[in-house]
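User: Can you model how ribose-5-phosphate sits in this protein?
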Amino acid sequence: MSAFSTAGAPLLLLAGSSNRPLAEQIAGYLGVQLGDAEIGRFPDGEVRIKLKSDVRGADVFLIQSTCSPVNDHLMELLIMADACRRASALRVTAVVPYFGYSRQDRKDEGRVPISAKLVANLIEAAGVHRVVTIDLHAAQIQGFFDIPVDHLFASRVFIKYLRQLALEDLVIASPDVGGMKMAWGYTKRLDDAKLAVIEKRRLSGEHVEVGFVIGEVKDKNVVLVDDIISTGGSVAKAAELLREKGAKRVYVMATHPVLCGRAVEKLRGAPVQEILVTDTIPTTAAIERLRVLSVAEMLGEAVHRIHSNKSVSTLFQA
Ligand code: R5P
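Assistant: Here's the modeled complex, given as structure tokens:
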């Protein structure tokens, strides 16, 4: 589907209701206004969409994180895409800064679904031609789609911040084995940074246990990197263990602030210097050491490049 030409087609940005502030910032970066759409509910709770902007022949970018309430936001995305297709949009790109259901990406026990694949199928079936997203739980989820996927990395914004901090004796740590590749990606871009990984076992959705640390963290400044902070257990336990093992300071850099359950309480009590997240998901959590970095510029540039048929790959670098 990506082979057709969108040259000359007007750019149109539309936003679902999940993250209006981010969509406004992307529009600001591109110097355009957000398109207009009525997004509501029917009396029984079904999603009701009415596009107010003319989408005929347009190169449409639908901005929607599928964050909580996940199912409502997902349905908004699907129904908006369907509305665009039926109103003769030339191309529809789903900009999904946070891709909900991404952690359900494999059968790790009998009789469970692969929900991330199902969601990918639904997005394609709704008429989306291309997807832009950030820090999927596993990069291989790109392959669940048979349309182009631009998978961007928040490390681009985190590393910029990290360079400003100019920390000495820097160690990048993953709170679990699954996140090691992400942590290693940081060390590749930061001269002299060393790698560490924590042995973590998940007991339930809310509870984790940590065991030992692989790598030298004593008297080091450790930056824990992760894709998601959900209930906060992983980073809180990892930070405690790192401090026990003699880490000088612990920073957290996690892309998507899902922050559910007792996350705020756990993060407030965690022995960390600063917790950095991005605005892929809007957050108003009152945590003193929480700082939100914006991915708006990176997404705005991705939209600009896709619309102008230019390479997006330079944005993959930090
Ligand atoms: C797990 O594999 C993910 O990368 C995150 O570490 C996890 O989702 C965080 O969950 P929680 O904050 O509930 O520990």
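A couple of observations from the model: The pocket of ribose-5-phosphate is lined by residues 103, 175-176, 178-179, 208, 226-234 (CB under 6 Å). The chain has two domains: 11-153+296-316, 155-293.
User: Helpful, thanks.
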